[in-house]
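Fold this sequence, please.
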Amino acid sequence: MIRMLVILAVGAGTAMLVLPLLAFGPEKNSQQSNANASSAAAQSNAGQMLRAFLGDDWRRWMTEYPEVATHVGFPGQDDRWTDDSPAGITQRKKHLADSLASLKAIHRAELPASEQLNFDLYLELLETANEGLQYGDDPFPFRNVVPRSLWMPLNQMGGIQLESADTLALQSHQTVAGYEIILKRLAALPAAVDQQLVLLQDGLKRGYTPPKITLRDLPKQIADLTPADALASPLLQTFTEFPANFPEAERARLTEKAKTIYAASITPAFRKLHDYVASTYLPACRENIAATALPNGAAAYAFHIRWQTTLNLTPQQIHEIGLSEVKRIRAEMDKVIASTKFQGSFHQFTEFLRTDARFYYDKPEDLVNGYRIIAKRIDPGLAHLFGKLPRLPYGVCPIPDFKAPSQTTAYYQGGSPQAGRPGCYFVNTYNLHARPKYEMEALSLHEAVPGHHLQISLAQEMENTPEFRKHVGYSAFVEGWALYSEGLGEDVGLYTDPYSKFGQLSYEMWRAVRLVVDTGMHSMGWTREQAIQFFKDNTGKTDQDITVEVDRYIVWPGQALAYKLGQLKIRDLRAQAERRLGAKFNIRTFHDAVLQQGAVPLSLLEPHIGHWLNSQAAQ
């Protein structure tokens, strides 16, 4: 202010105003400068303290969770598995408590504004993980798809029977040293399997099990890991993928060692797990599908809704939003049906889509190639929608056969800039006549670009950002963005025929139905059959997809709510921007602003876009 006053006085040519400022200014200026310097120094020290803590804590969490470290490309942890022994779990809970105490020892008010967001996000993550302990959730604070349950560690969607093979397949296997590390992790796998067996037994004693109906494929998933031919096991996949120039003698030695470990310890460990699950655990699992059937289940469901959606909504409120969206989308679907000149009802149209051979591939490789063609068609249009695009590439990959029957139509697996590993858009080739062509465009927009791959890769490539911000995954943001991306199809040259447009609306309807059936099953007494029938009544999805989806919602209560609620929030923010800016609205800068901070809770996305909107309006 003083300097501005001096300049104004000189500019006005008023000597009498200059002299008092020259006479009294230096002392006041010095005092103000000292105060500013002191404040800046305090902010700098506090900011450095926070960044040092965040860096150290991230490294500590990566050593506690070696599989996560492998997935994100954090080095040095690829020879181990998470310690799920009682001592290991106790140690992780202590680490969570210590992390909370250390963070709270940093004074938020002393932080520069740029670091206060990092503080707030980290505090919310730690406090949420701490709250989840009472419901059996693992203390890992960085959100993934769902919180990992220590009392129900296996189901048809996740667990060591699926994640062990995935993790091993991600490891670097270009050198002899890389293969030696894989062998160490293979040798450590039986102990990790035994730990899961103990967790299952503990959960059973506590009265915590998944519903029996959802686990029908679980014994086969486990059994399929240990075929008689070791090299046919998904666990030894890397030993069938040696680089072309790999020394033959080393190839033979490493393969033989892997087969020995497989036969001597891995096979017995998984077969013991299989026998326990098939003969003891599965018969003892609960019949009731509702999350509220578990001890303290209603509170746990409410917590997981907040965890997944980052919103304070009740199950009843979400149920009503779902019913409203189902009604709105159904009207749009009816318009598309009318445009095809189809003579018949909605259900006759969906039956036509499910049964007409023109809508399905006959060969798995043709389906995969079809997805790849769509991905290549999308890429050129991205520059019209985004000012910033990620550097990390992605590929289209078939879901491994051993887990395909229980998996959804597709999913995305993030790459790693640190490890030089591209992202992968996994597509399901099991039961080809459950994978219609007219859904492939919407699915590709969601799982690849501009959905998961674009958003997640941009987050991973953020600069001058704490590492946790690059990898945290708030479902409402991540899945909300991906569902919003499905609505950008026309902008990149897709949905040119009514069937693909109907496919996009079917996918949006699918996410609206989730709001109804998830809350219906877990808080309103709906049966599994009611949920399946509501799906059939309102979507064109195949019976295979509907069954897998409903069973997914049963074992992951609340997770499926994130998609539609996140999409609605992003759509609402865009509508606000379009109304306020009018002709000034630029879709590229809006999208860049939404993705600028990486994944954040919806409660923080809204004020961020509000600030962006103010800056745009002022220009």
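Residues 160-287 form one domain. Confidence is low (pLDDT under 50) at residues 1-28.
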